[in-house]
What we know:
This protein is of the alpha+beta class. The protein contains 10 helices and 21 strands. It has helices at 26-40, 44-47, 53-68, 73-84, 112-120, 227-232, 260-274, 318-327, 376-384, 450-461; strands at 93-96, 131-135, 138-144, 151-159, 169-175, 180-185, 191-200, 203-206, 211-216, 239-244, 247-251, 279-283, 307-308, 313-315, 344-345, 352-353, 364-369, 390-394, 403-411, 414-422, 441-442.
Amino acid sequence: MMRLHKFLLLINLFLSVNAVAKNCNCSEILQQSIKGIENNYALFKIKVNANNYKGYQSFNRLYLIKAQSIEQSDACQKLLNDWVAYFKDKHLWVTVDSEVEKIDYIQHRLALKSYRKRWRDNKITKDSIEGLWEMEGYRAVIIPDLNNYGHFNALIVSADNDTFKPGMLKMHLIKRDGFYDMDFYRRDSTMVSSTIRFTSKYTLLDDDGLSWRKLEPTLPTDRIPTLAEMNRLDPYKPTLKWVDENSAIFTLPSCAPRFGPVVDSLIDVHKDKLAQCLNLIIDVKGNGGGSDRTYRALLPYLLIKASVQPKVGYYLSDENVKLFRELGILKKLNPSDTSKRGTWATTLETPYLSAAHYAKFPVNVAILMDSKTASSGETFVLKAKTSQRVTTFGTATAGCIDGYNGNVIRLNGASLRYPTSIRTINLPQEAIDPFGILPDIPISGTVSDPISWILDYFKQTERNP
């Protein structure tokens, strides 16, 4: 990193960070977690069997010994994270109760003139995040942390409240591959960790949906959206764009339930053009899941007929049966099974995957996926692959699909979240976790424009209606 002498002199008046650590009985929490998983987790008897049971028991004994010496909630959380990783299931976790950390704010010397001089100096290599930024209620300057390469501090320039004064640290950022880890300081003397990433040249969005817009340095010819405009934009909102009259790109970054009506509306608006469309590319890269209902309106353009699906296994335990009753699942199960415990029940009816209708077009459907396509995003891919008109492209998905219908039970000092059901009773023979769904046509991450790559592929195959 280029030395920044003549840039600024930072005087860090670091005040103590007072973490209000909470004591916990980590050994008891782990014992309850083991019992809760063994009694209720739908995949437990699949992942722990006669071949590895002794190893599993030894693993538990080791962690129970470790837990005996842990009294702090944060250390217990780390141990439980490591322990639960044994099951290789991203839908399974234990959350230890903890008190929010109270902190004292960090004050720096603010030197806007020096920062602006640095931005104007073309001889200095600068990160694109450096500059003066604005979010709702705050203006802050993001500058390099002189003590740590790849680290940045966001210092308050002005705020619409009395808590944050000029020069106070609002964010500490660490540059990663395509995003920044972020410690965000809030008005209630707490700090939360998250990530933030560019959504355009002059805009940022964090995991909590907070938007930032760049004020300086910018080009006078570039139009930067206002905060009001940015708040109306949602990078996870589905979109449909036409490449030409024959090819469309449907972007589905999330299956969150709130986007179901958006998908319905997009299909309704474009249904006449879709009825003559040759190529439809559905981009589900980064789709971490949500609800299968969200993409229902897309199914007529993917499927060509109804198909029999594997039977779901609903694991019967006292806790799970309560959930199945609440969800209306219990009444659909085979009555001869529902009184049993410690086994999987199935529905009486044969499950079918079908659509409201089956459109003649598009001729070719491409699903573009990656390693962050998970949960309902993966379910979408799996359903799409039943159709002969669908080809999948990209890289393997996340491998987070075999267990679902999550339930949460309270422990003494923690909560356990686990899947109550399995995607198919044909596990482990037809397991997808943790390897993911492989693409029909792999596309390397080094390909800069996968959409054009897919369109070229369709031109070469020349599949006709």
